[in-house]
Write a structure and sequence with these properties.
With 313 residues, the protein is an alpha/beta fold. It folds into three domains: 91 residues, Arc Repressor Mutant, subunit A; 111 residues, D-Maltodextrin-Binding Protein, domain 2 (3-Layer(aba) Sandwich); 104 residues, D-Maltodextrin-Binding Protein, domain 2 (3-Layer(aba) Sandwich). It contains 13 helices and eleven strands. The strands form two sheets. Strands 3, 4, 5, 6, 7, 8, 9, 10 and 11 form a nine-stranded mixed β-sheet that branches. Strand 1 and strand 2 form a beta hairpin. The longest helix has 27 residues. The protein starts with a helix and ends with a helix.
């Protein structure tokens, strides 16, 4: 007969669950003890008490290796949910007292990486108890992570319209056509978009948002999109253009110093710059944590300041 919930909870302790989680993740009683500041016999005792409470073996040795049982795998799944809920509870209780804390996991597409530190500076001044991590990926990876719900918020452009997403636009992203300061195109009175695109176009890899924006523009305007060289980052494209390898279409936010110093020149082309909004995005079904909501509120309340900071408007 399975144990009743009341009887089971009366036998379990959070310390047992904590010890189990450490042994499960480290696959070692001794390493779990080192992590938790316990002796190996104390770890063994806690696991044994948990097994007795569950009336199921959780670990077994084959030779000198520690293996998990089916019961342990199911237990690990439940314990992860329990500890996540405890973390959420701690965060929510802090928010009720007016102290927003907890973790904020951000993902930024590579085009947005140049501005994220400036967004975070003011945010963390307001909320010093929030711990922020940032991953920089290309657009294809950002969409995959969005689908898998791996993160709290995604900062990206060109938000897909065929998904149930909440999107907060907050900054204009201009993609400008650039050449090195001694390029022959600068000597012409008028340059057509196709002449520019045929001048050994340096582009990002497939899956990049800036490449997709340019591909879509070419398709809409019936322009021939013919990359001369494919590079793995905006910085690579930027330096490729500066070195004379070709021309490129880059986020204006990523090249302010090069434009100011004259190392890159923007070419006046019909249909450019391409404009796409930067947005903060999360799945519609995702319930914002206090840290998430604090960041969304901060972005919403400071849109004019970001425009002044990044666009000079």
């Amino acid at each position: 007969m399975p144990l009743s919930v009341n009887k089971l909870t009366g036998r379990l302790t959070f310390r047992q669950l904590q010890v189990f989680k450490a042994v499960y993740e480290l696959r070692s009683y001794s390493k779990a003890g080192e992590l938790l500041g316990l002796t190996q016999p104390a770890v063994s005792s806690q696991v044994r008490q948990l097994e007795q409470a569950l009336e199921q073996p959780l670990f077994e040795y084959v030779g000198r290796r520690l293996f998990t049982t089916a019961a342990a795998e199911r237990m690990a799944e439940s314990i992860n949910h329990i500890f996540i809920e405890l973390s959420n509870l701690q965060t929510d209780l802090g928010a009720l007292k007016g102290n927003v804390a907890g973790e904020l996991r951000l993902v930024a597409v590579s085009t947005a990486q140049y501005m994220v530190p400036y967004l975070l500076r003011g945010f963390l001044d307001l909320h010093p108890k929030i711990s922020v991590s940032v991953k920089v990926v290309n657009r294809a990876t950002a969409l995959q992570r969005l689908h898998e719900n791996n993160d709290d918020l995604i900062i990206m452009g060109m938000v897909p319209v065929d998904r149930a997403l909440v999107s907060l636009p907050f900054l204009d992203n201009e993609l400008v056509p650039v050449v090195p300061d001694d390029h022959l195109l600068l000597e012409r009175e008028k340059v057509t978009p196709q002449q520019f695109l045929d001048s050994n176009l340096l582009v990002r890899e497939p899956g990049s948002g800036s490449r997709l924006a340019l591909e879509q523009h070419c398709q809409q305007q019936r322009l021939r999109f013919k990359p001369g060289m494919e590079l793995g980052s905006n910085d690579s494209v930027k330096h490729g253009v500066i070195s004379g390898l070709g021309v490129g279409v880059l986020p204006k936010l990523s090249i302010p110093a090069e434009l100011e110093l004259g190392r890159l020149k923007v070419v006046d082309l019909d249909g450019f710059p391409l404009r796409r909004d930067f947005c903060v995005v999360h799945p519609q079904a995702k319930h914002p944590t206090p840290a998430m909501q604090a960041f969304l509120d901060y972005i919403q309340q400071n849109i004019k300041e970001f425009e002044r900071m990044f666009l000079g408007s």
